[in-house]
UniProtKB/TrEMBL annotation:
<dbReference type="GO" id="GO:0005922">
    <property type="term" value="C:connexin complex"/>
</dbReference>
<dbReference type="InterPro" id="IPR038359">
    <property type="entry name" value="Connexin_N_sf"/>
</dbReference>
<feature type="transmembrane region" description="Helical">
    <location>
        <begin position="182"/>
        <end position="205"/>
    </location>
</feature>
<feature type="domain" description="Connexin cysteine-rich">
    <location>
        <begin position="140"/>
        <end position="206"/>
    </location>
</feature>
<dbReference type="InterPro" id="IPR019570">
    <property type="entry name" value="Connexin_CCC"/>
</dbReference>
<dbReference type="InterPro" id="IPR000500">
    <property type="entry name" value="Connexin"/>
</dbReference>
<feature type="transmembrane region" description="Helical">
    <location>
        <begin position="24"/>
        <end position="42"/>
    </location>
</feature>
<keyword id="KW-0965">Cell junction</keyword>
<comment type="function">
    <text>One gap junction consists of a cluster of closely packed pairs of transmembrane channels, the connexons, through which materials of low MW diffuse from one cell to a neighboring cell.</text>
</comment>
<dbReference type="InterPro" id="IPR013092">
    <property type="entry name" value="Connexin_N"/>
</dbReference>
<keyword id="KW-0303">Gap junction</keyword>
<keyword id="KW-1003">Cell membrane</keyword>
<keyword id="KW-0812">Transmembrane</keyword>
<keyword id="KW-0472">Membrane</keyword>
<protein>
    <recommendedName>
        <fullName>Gap junction protein</fullName>
    </recommendedName>
</protein>
<feature type="transmembrane region" description="Helical">
    <location>
        <begin position="77"/>
        <end position="97"/>
    </location>
</feature>
<dbReference type="Pfam" id="PF00029">
    <property type="entry name" value="Connexin"/>
</dbReference>
Amino acid sequence: MGEWSFLSGLFDALQVHSPMLGRFWLLLMLVFRILILGTVAGDLFEDEQGEFACNTLQPGCKQVCYDDAFPISQYRFWVFHIVLISTPSLIFLMYAMHHHNKRTTRLSQPRFSQLSRNAAREERHLRQLYVINVAFRLVTEVGFLVGQWWLYGFRVEAQFPCSRFPCPYTVDCFVSRPMEKTVFLCFYFAVGVVSALSSFVELLYASLKWFRPTREQPEEQVCVCQNLRNLQQEEAE
């Protein structure tokens, strides 16, 4: 149960430090990518190389034709995508949890000098890191969408002609369950488009809301300082 409590803490940190669009992206990642990729796609692509058949018995021809048809396995391509796009988010969440624990420890101490200034600086630093994380996520999403389109297109053909060495002539190779793989290919591409749009809107929202100068900031700082002064007076009494 230790792993589940660790993940629960990460998700709590995400809810604190990200807007609603960030939680929507997390839902896309957990349900429509990790869950479906681990259940449906795992069974669909586990026999892709074993069931790839060519109408020749020439040794080595089947292997080179498979490499020509699928330079990178679709399943491994998507797994690498999930790992690459999730790693910065997990690093940010762990850093946010560490920052939150430090701030909680600092608030429990009896002294409040420079508390408001340090808290505002650290909060701004966290927001900057979060915006950088969303920007990296957006670039990665777009890059993998372009890579998927360039490598596989939007259709898995049932028949693949191949004439690479050591094939003695142009042979025909056949892919197992091409229709199911085509549907999953389009589905994963659509999820990637939705995720990229969500990251783009979240980047605009966070940049405009968090870093746009407003006239209310001095009043808020005065209120925070006044509250800290009141706490100090109560402690002295």
